Amino acid sequence: MYVxxxxxxxxxxxxxxxxxxxxxxxxxxxxxxxxxxxxxxxPHHVTTALRELSHDGSIEWxxxxxxxxxxxxxxxxxxxxxxxxxxxxxxxxxxxxxxRYSGWSQGTKRHPQGLVGPAGExxxxxxxxxxxxxxxxxxxxxxxxxLLGVTLPGPLDSAGYLVPIDASGLPQSPVxxxxxxxNLRSWIYPSSEELYQLLHxxxxxxxxxxxxxxxPVFVCRRAHQTTFWMSHQLGFVTIDMGIQYVGDVEExxxxxxxxxxxxxDLAPGKGPSLRVRDxxxxxxxxxxxxxxxxxxxxxxxxxxxxxxxxxRRSSNRQEHGTLVAELRRANSRLGRQGGW
Length: 340
Known about the structure:
The chain has helices at 2-17, 22-31, 43-55, 84-106, 116-131, 193-208, 225-234, 251-260, 274-299, 302-313, 317-333, and strands spanning 59-65, 71-77, 134-136, 144-147, 150-156, 158-162, 175-182, 214-220, 237-240, 244-245, 266-267. The protein is an alpha/beta fold. The radius of gyration is 22 Å and the shape is globular.
């Protein structure tokens, strides 16, 4: 049903827009809806629908370079009768806008790390400081390479220590909070490799300090519902900001990308993320001990540890998918509900 609706949505959008880029389709169909009839079609259904439409010859992917030399693929109808000029003009415009966005997200000579990633990290760091809920492990809630005396397999974007409150309202021993921030356009699913960067670091730390309560926190722009189920069962926290901060960019350029590619959650500046701030200030003091217990159970199970470490090291899509499926089975063997 959802794939059929996604197919109809794609063809309707192409009738109006003439050419699109893939992230634009996801934004129009999965996030903001389109004409009210296509709400709640998740990105994986859109991807399947694109594959089917391409296979049956209704659409085609055309890759061309912008004037700046960036190769961009656009999705276009194969039937060009009476609209070839409009399709060509629309494709050129979408390539220009997406190349601009890609420069912000992937980097340029002027900003090698891009603007979007650092803006997301700073939005979280500002939220940590404004929440007053954590004692940051590094100055300004910045990057952390070692924690609790343990050198990590790669830096955390931030970390700190939170004093939880028990059911009677009494403060407890501090919980160590680990932050990984991925300010990406794509939705985060349980199979997304970015999750396992955080989980692997958290396993290394928990294994070295088994008595310490630890809570991994993954922050992204948008997460699929199954990722929240996964985090609840494994014992980590997922926070989707609902906003993609892009740093300091020219206002008119931002408006053109946001409006024409339908990236409605693009925002200038670097936060703070109000969702992160509120979760830290209002929710984690009450829930962090229970989450830390769940994470400790995950990190002490040999099968879970082996699979998470394997996923982190996996080098191809097939192996990655096989290991994620094994992680689901290992999770079910612990008596957990699954569903992700």
